[in-house]
């Protein structure tokens, strides 16, 4: 499905003059999903990633074909449950929350952790 997009940017400070016409149409699939065969949607719960802008209830767009790199936000399976955290590779392997009230999860060789994918986008509702 294609949705109208206005080419002018929207000022979040002082208002800018509005345009009365749509300049082109945009497909959110084409804009947000680069690899349909390996892209998944997951719903975020909790607030351990709120300082990264990922809020409770957000829709996460996750690409699973990539090898995750240091500093990327990943979805990992840990003890049969999914979690969303920053991946830290050095100085030690860990999953790092973006909320100072949560502790990092240090990754050891004995742990059963699988990186499911890399979070590319978080979509959240503004207001109600």
Descriptive overview:
- This protein has 128 residues and is mainly beta.
- The chain has one helix spanning 28-32; strands at residues 2-5, 24-27, 39-43, 59-63, 73-78, 81-88, 94-96, 105-106, 113-123.
- The strands form two sheets. The chain has a seven-stranded antiparallel beta sheet, with no helix packed on it. It has a two-stranded antiparallel ribbon with strand order 1-2.
- The two termini are 24 Å apart.
- The model has no long low-confidence stretch (mean pLDDT 85).
Q: What order do the helices and strands come in, and which of them pair?
A:
Layout lengths: L1 E4 L18 E4 H5 L6 E5 L15 E5 L9 E6 L2 E8 L5 E3 L8 E2 L6 E11 L5
Antiparallel strand pairs: 1-2, 3-4, 4-9, 5-6, 5-9, 6-7, 7-8
Summarize the structure.
The chain is mainly beta. It is built from 1 helix and 9 strands, in the order ββαβββββββ.
Number of helices: 1
Strand content: 35-45%
| Head-to-tail CA distance between termini | 24 Å
Question: Architecture of the domain at 35-123, CATH level 2?
Answer: Ribbon
Uncertain ranges: none
Helix and strand element order:
EEHEEEEEEE
Widest β-sheet, arrangement of strands: 3-4-9-5-6-7-8
CATH homologous superfamily label of the domain at 35-123: Umud Fragment, subunit A
Shape: globular
In total, how many beta strands?
Answer: 9
In CATH's first tier, which class of the domain at 35-123 applies?
Mainly Beta
Helix content: under 10%
Please describe the biggest sheet, giving its number of strands, its sense, and whether it closes into a barrel.
Answer: 7 strands, antiparallel
| Computed Rg | 18 Å
SS-derived structural category: mainly beta
Task: Give the overall pLDDT as a whole number.
Answer: 85
Named CATH topology of the domain at 35-123: Umud Fragment, subunit A
The quaternary organization reads as single chain
